[in-house]
Design a protein that fits this description.
Strand content: under 5%
Helix content: over 70%
Order of helices and strands: HHHH
Number of strands: 0
Bound molecules: protoporphyrin IX containing FE
Shape: elongated
Number of helices: 4
Oligomer: single chain
Radius of gyration: 17 Å
Distance between the termini: 22 Å
Length: 132
Amino acid sequence: MSAVTLETLRLFLHVLAATVWVGGQITLAALVPALRAAGTDVPKAAANAFNRIAWPAFGVLLLTGVWNVVAEGDKGPAYERTLMVKYTLVLASGVTAFLHARAASRRAMAVFGALTGLTALATLFVGIMLAQ
Ligand code: HEM
């Protein structure tokens, strides 16, 4: 069997947090029609419950992300550019999720909801590019 190393732990925590942040958003979006049918306040209650694990997961992504950067070291200009794209997407993912949670109108809710979903997926994709 392969050895368990510090790298195993680092990537396990990073990917675990990514499953919560990205997978949780997709799952919550898929459940919204059923939650709406259960009551008008139910989607908001579910979103609040999700936020209690989503933001800690985002914090773990930031911490383990810095750990990844330090551990991987200098891998050349193409890798650095990919990292810059990833930093921008992480920022956009966090800011749009924050604005989505605080949106006052249905339109703002829909726009920031779509943006946070797209930027979370894009961050996941660029994360895989870095790990290749
Ligand atoms: C929404 C936030 C984030 C998501 C969804 C995400 C997702 C991922 C995923 C899925 C991987 C591939 C892991 C693997 O298969 O080995 C990855 C790798 C990586 N991520 Fe993230 N990440 C996020 C935030 C960050 C942040 C904030 C940083 C830097 C501060 C970062 C730096 C890295 C690096 C350097 C790798 C490559 C690790 C390696 O090759 O060992 N990530 N990320």
